[in-house]
Amino acid sequence: MPEPEKPLTYADAVRIKAEERQLAPQLARIIVEARDGGTKAAQIARDLHLTEGRVHQILRAHRDQ
């Protein structure tokens, strides 16, 4: 049986938000690499908690660059 998750602290939230700011500018590259590696857009969307439409939008924008 898995152990219950421990509650996050304020310090955890600060660290997560800082990591989120680092992720944002790299997200398109990460999504493109995942797709190029064989991961379907629907799976990327589920894994990253995005809509599939948003994933396709990011992929199109990257392709058009």
Comma- or semicolon-separated keywords:
mainly alpha; about 60 residues
Provide structural commentary:
Helix 3 packs across helix 4 (52-63). The mean pLDDT is 93. The protein has helices at 10-23, 27-36, 41-48, 52-63. It is 68% helix and 0% strand. The longest helix has 14 residues, at 10-23. The protein is mainly α and 65 residues long. The chain is extended and about 40 Å long.
Q: How would you summarize the topology of this molecule?
A:
Elements: H1 10-23, H2 27-36, H3 41-48, H4 52-63
Structural class by helix and strand composition = mainly alpha
Number of strands: 0
- Give the amount of beta strand, in percent: under 5%
| CA-CA gap between termini | 48 Å
Strand count, sense and barrel status of the largest sheet are: none
Element-level helix/strand string: HHHH
Helix percent reads: 55-70%
* Number of helices, where a helix is a run of at least 4 consecutive DSSP H or I residues: 4
Task: Give the quaternary arrangement of the chains.
Answer: single chain
> What global shape is seen?
extended
Radius of gyration, whole Å: 15 Å
* Mean of pLDDT: 93
Question: Which blocks of ≥5 consecutive residues have pLDDT under 50?
Answer: none
